[in-house]
């Protein structure tokens, strides 16, 4: 993938390249798709989980923001590529906005899809993010099929686009293709698997403990139980069965009460039987352990998601963990995202796009804007030259 000399003879699937061959790609016909999950709806399930688990969602959003950086830069020798940075498509989105959504889909689903639009004369280039939950890979492995609702798939309503560098001409005269980003996982050939896959259970635990606490709040922290009243039932066994069912149903929802009517013999036997479960300490420990497991599954850091601020803000720890994340995860993801975009710019614009790169900045400014570049280099222990015009600029001018 790093060598683009043979790019026109290969399908562009980030993580895997397969020969294109001589099969035509302009004809749009019905194609069966590879199921994404056993019911073809795994993306929707993963998206729903992220909207339910607070810590899980925070980590995904933060990772996507860090991976997309503070913007992008390119040399002055590539003016058409530079214009793409400001306006990547007809919707007025910047290239960073498009990449941020690509990064979010990769962090959430392990897959992302970038649509490329141009014309036969290569007079323009537009890049669009496509919602990964709407995309599926065709059985021939050469196309991406887009549909608005995979619960009720209708081939006549689907759009089929080839994988880049093959293009398909559309009714409006444009040429369109798709780049498929996917995280490699053994035994999964057609779709990628998100890095946090081993933490799905921990994410569900956090969601359930939050729901349990919400139930306690809604019921004013009243205990669950069974109110036993004197009355007629067919048998003691029936009453015991009702009590058992009450415990199964209400034990996880504190503050709910089930009324049980049973035979009274001589005295009034009306009483309240509380249903006791794990203590609050056990629930808190379970929640904290699940949070730690989620962070580990994401290969992420606590301070970069604001989880250690309760014990005091440590600028040094944030800076150190950011540098580790930058060199072990962020730049790796950025490289995988930017390489296909460089290839597309070189192909369409006929410009050298190797200089296209991310601008990465720490989560907080550690140097004042009025400091000069040579002063900042001196403070960090690097070589500096006060007489160098480029180092005489203020940091605010960069």
Can you tell me about this structure?
By secondary structure, this protein is α+β, with helices and mostly antiparallel strands. The chain folds into 3 domains: 7-195, no CATH class; 201-297, no CATH class; 367-398, no CATH class. The chain has 9 helices and 13 strands. The strands form 4 sheets. Strands 1, 3, 4, 8 and 9 form a 5-stranded mixed sheet that branches. The protein has a 3-stranded antiparallel sheet with strand order 5-6-7, with no helix packed on it. Strands 11-10-12 form a 3-stranded mixed sheet, covered by helices on one side. α2 packs across α4, α2 (54-68) packs across α8 (315-349) and α5 (200-218) runs antiparallel to α7. The longest helix has 35 residues, at 315-349.
Overall body shape: flat
Structural class: alpha+beta
Mean pLDDT: 80
Helix-strand topology string: EHHEHHEEEEEEEHEHEEHHEH
Low-confidence stretches: 1-12, 15-30
Task: Using the CA coordinates, give the radius of gyration.
Answer: 29 Å
Discrete helix count: 9
Describe the sheet with the most strands.
5 strands, mixed
Q: Summarize the amount of helix as a percent range.
A: 25-40%
Amino- and carboxy-terminal Cα gap = 32 Å
* Percent of residues in β-strands: 5-15%
- Whole-number tally of structural domains: 3
* Number of beta strands: 13
Helix and strand topology:
Blueprint: E1 13-14, H1 42-50, H2 54-68, E2 72-73, H3 79-86, H4 95-109, E3 111-118, E4 126-130, E5 135-137, E6 143-146, E7 159-162, E8 168-169, E9 175-182, H5 200-218, E10 225-230, H6 236-250, E11 257-262, E12 271-274, H7 280-297, H8 315-349, E13 357-358, H9 373-379
Parallel strand pairs: 1-9, 10-11
Antiparallel strand pairs: 2-13, 3-4, 3-9, 5-6, 6-7, 8-9, 10-12
Helix pairs in contact: 2-4, 2-8, 5-7
């Amino acid at each position: 993938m790093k060598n683009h000399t043979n790019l026109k003879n290969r399908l562009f699937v980030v993580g895997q390249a397969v020969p294109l061959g001589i099969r035509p790609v302009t004809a749009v016909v019905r194609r069966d798709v590879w199921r994404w999950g056993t019911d073809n709806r795994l993306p929707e399930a993963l998206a729903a989980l992220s909207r339910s688990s607070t810590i899980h969602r925070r980590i995904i959003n933060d990772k996507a923001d860090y991976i997309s950086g503070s913007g992008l830069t390119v040399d002055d020798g590539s003016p058409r590529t530079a214009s793409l940075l400001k306006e990547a498509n007809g919707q007025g989105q910047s290239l960073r906005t498009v990449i941020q959504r690509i990064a979010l889909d990769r962090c959430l689903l392990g897959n992302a899809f970038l649509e490329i639009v141009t014309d036969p004369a290569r007079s323009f280039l537009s890049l669009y993010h496509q919602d990964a939950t709407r995309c599926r890979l065709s059985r021939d492995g050469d196309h991406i099929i887009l549909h608005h609702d995979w619960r009720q798939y209708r081939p006549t309503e689907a759009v089929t686009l080839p994988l880049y560098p093959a293009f398909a001409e559309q009714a409006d005269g444009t040429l369109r293709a798709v780049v498929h980003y996917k995280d490699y996982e053994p035994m999964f050939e057609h779709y990628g698997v998100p890095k946090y896959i081993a933490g799905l259970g921990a994410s569900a635990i956090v969601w359930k403990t939050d729901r349990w606490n919400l139930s306690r709040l809604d019921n004013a922290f009243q205990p669950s139980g069974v109110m036993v009243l004197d009355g007629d039932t067919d048998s003691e066994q029936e009453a015991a069965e009702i009590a058992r069912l009450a415990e199964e149903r209400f034990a996880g929802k504190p503050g709910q009460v089930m009324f049980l009517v049973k035979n009274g013999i001589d005295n009034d036997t009306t009483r309240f039987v509380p249903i006791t479960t794990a203590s609050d300490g056990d629930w808190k420990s379970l929640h904290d352990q699940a949070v730690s497991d989620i962070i580990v599954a994401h290969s992420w850091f606590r301070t970069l998601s604001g989880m250690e601020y309760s014990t005091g803000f440590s600028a040094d720890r944030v800076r150190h963990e950011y540098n580790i994340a930058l060199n072990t995860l962020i730049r790796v993801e950025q490289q995988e995202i930017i390489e296909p975009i460089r290839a597309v710019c070189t192909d369409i614009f006929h410009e050298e796009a190797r200089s296209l790169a991310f601008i990465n900045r720490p989560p907080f400014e550690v140097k004042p804007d009025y400091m000069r570049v040579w002063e900042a280099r001196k403070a960090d222990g690097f070589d500096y030259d006060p007489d160098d015009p480029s180092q005489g600029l203020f940091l605010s001018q960069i």
